[in-house]
Amino acid sequence: MRLVEIYEGTLFECQMIKNLLENEGIESNLKDEIIGTRGGNVWRQAGGVKIIISDDNYEKARIIISEFEKSRKD
């Protein structure tokens, strides 16, 4: 098992995605959670909060995240 970064965004977005992933049985962790909450748009441009998962769950998680992103555009 290897850990991979699958998403980068705001703390709010990452918390929502983390909940979606966990509802589907995919364990995930947030990285740079504190840094991502400081500085507003400045940190978003420089890199915000990241979601880390096991590479075993990558494909399933990618589908869930794609659906999340699609729903935000609608």
From TrEMBL:
It comes from Abyssalbus ytuae. Residues 4-69 form the DUF2007 domain. This is DUF2007 domain-containing protein. It holds the Pfam family DUF2007.
